Amino acid sequence: xxxxxxxxxxxxxxxxxxxxxxxxxxxxxxxxxxxxxxxxxxxxxxxxxxxxxxxxxxxxxxxxxxxxxxxxxxxxxxxxxxxxxxxxxxxxxxxxxxxxxxxxxxxxxxxxxxxxxxxxxxxxxxxxxxxxxxxxxxxxxxxxxxxxxxxxxxxxxxxxxxxxxxxxxxxxxxxxxxxxxxxxxxxxxxxxxxxxxxxx
Length: 200
Description:
Double Stranded RNA Binding Domain; alpha+beta; 3-stranded antiparallel sheet
């Protein structure tokens, strides 16, 4: 997944990259938590990898050099984007193709089809799939945040635009991005916080 170095930096108990790596007297490395849990649930105190048995439970010290190497490795490794699955699929959940702000659901290719065919659903606001759909909904009016208020530099829904932001200069979020080649940055995980455009 991460390349040839992964196995060297992988705990053989949890099969993930080390967290607080510790070394056994026989020279094998494990996550501190993994090894402690393993020994807590075992009758004998032995190395999970080579099975060498120790007369008494070793005092585990974090391998600082290995921890630093793991830290550098994690910074360089590309983080996987969280997968968004279809909310409608029942047995085998397929990856979502789009999320609908109106329905507040995400759909795979099959379940998205009505949104592309049915007249009423065609008007719904579709976007790239996200797990946190509630962050794209106005908390005040429970409506999709579709507009960008240039006066207040924040995303608003249609109801906000005729009430709280009446006579303000509002444009569709997409237009704001296209016109000034900006990227709207989500602050503190919610669109109802003030948003600032950042020049690319």
